[in-house]
From TrEMBL:
<dbReference type="InterPro" id="IPR011991">
    <property type="entry name" value="ArsR-like_HTH"/>
</dbReference>
<protein>
    <submittedName>
        <fullName>Predicted transcriptional regulator</fullName>
    </submittedName>
</protein>
<dbReference type="InterPro" id="IPR036388">
    <property type="entry name" value="WH-like_DNA-bd_sf"/>
</dbReference>
<dbReference type="InterPro" id="IPR050313">
    <property type="entry name" value="Carb_Metab_HTH_regulators"/>
</dbReference>
<dbReference type="GO" id="GO:0006355">
    <property type="term" value="P:regulation of DNA-templated transcription"/>
</dbReference>
<dbReference type="InterPro" id="IPR036390">
    <property type="entry name" value="WH_DNA-bd_sf"/>
</dbReference>
Length: 213
């Protein structure tokens, strides 16, 4: 039997992974009535976990879309954020900016080798994007891959960043990850970041455009 707490957690997860949603949308996803969804939403709003923004449509009345507050965002793990930020600051103090760059380069090289080893068994671009999404999800990024038929391209979406706080203090971490993706798809696809959490987006999104051979 699903408890109110379970349903509340599922609502938070759905909004985190899918973006702002209305009560009818959440009800449909949860397999309950709109009224039932509203009851859970009201409790989450009282706890300071949700807030609504009205979105206008071309026709009809505005629709209330529910979003996560900062308090709700903090319920999703940010891997040892305070410790990581302290280590970044200490590295800057002791070794300077160049020392920090060397540290990022070392991490970048280790991550790249790990990805290359895991992805090298997938010569097909579609399989490789899907495999990368699985790798990133295992690292806490809540990632998924999908094919956009109209554009003829693949997208990798990361709905959570477990190192977001660290990346805010050292943006080289994000730069290195994009470079690693590009290296992993050399000869297969052009990789570009189309949405970036640190630039105010809800998530990070990468586009994979296949290269003709």
């Amino acid at each position: 039997m699903t408890t109110q707490e379970d349903s509340g957690e599922r609502i938070l997860y759905l909004i985190k992974s899918r973006g702002p949603a209305s009560a009818p949308e959440l009800g449909a996803l949860l397999g309950m009535t709109t009224m039932g969804a509203r009851q859970h939403i009201a409790k989450l709003e009282q706890e300071g976990l949700l807030y609504s923004v009205e979105e206008r449509k071309a026709r009809g009345r505005p629709v209330a879309k529910w979003r996560l507050t900062e308090k709700a965002q903090s319920r999703f793990p940010d891997s040892h954020a305070n410790l990581t930020v302290d280590l970044i600051a200490s590295t800057r103090e002791v070794f300077g900016e160049k020392g920090l760059e060397k540290l990022i380069e070392a991490r970048n090289a280790k991550q790249l080798q790990s990805y290359l080893t895991a992805l090298s068994v997938y010569p097909d671009m579609a399989q490789r994007v899907a495999a990368l999404a699985e790798l990133r999800s295992a690292e806490g990024y809540m990632a998924n891959a999908f094919f956009e038929q109209d554009e003829g391209v693949w997208y990798l979406v990361e709905n959570h960043c477990p190192v977001c706080v660290a990346a805010q203090h050292c943006q080289g971490l994000c730069r290195a990850e994009l470079q690693n993706f590009q290296r992993c798809f050399e000869g297969l696809a052009m990789v570009e970041r189309t949405e970036h959490l640190l630039k105010g987006a809800r998530r990070c999104c990468y586009r994979f455009t296949g290269k003709s051979r």
